[in-house]
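Researcher: Good morning. I'm working through a list of sequences from a screen, and I'd like to move beyond sequence-only analysis. For each chain I'm collecting a predicted structure so we can compare shapes side by side. This is the next one on the list. No need for commentary yet; just the structure.
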Amino acid sequence: MSKQKEKRLPEFFRPLMWSYKFSDVNLEKDQRDIIVNSVNYGDLEHWQWLVKTYGKEPLKKRLANIPFSEFRPGAVKLISLLLNLKKLNYALRSDYIRNKKTTVRINQI
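Model: Good morning. Structure tokens for this chain:
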């Protein structure tokens, strides 16, 4: 398998990533969005893929740093049970956005 294909998301993720240009989704760069969409809207196949691809412990760490408000209430309970997460980041989404540093290049405007 080529390195380019390895960095692509499996086709069964297409419905979860409907708001993205699917062919441009990158497993590393877009990891946070893949995880959030999978947790909120995915099924067992998506969850298994996340654990297999990113690893259980790294996935737990990543989830613990995503604001609680990013997830649907039922998804939070499921995350806690399936991954044995004891603590989630309860920052409000507005706090996350306000504190996020963004850089825009002049030629991107």
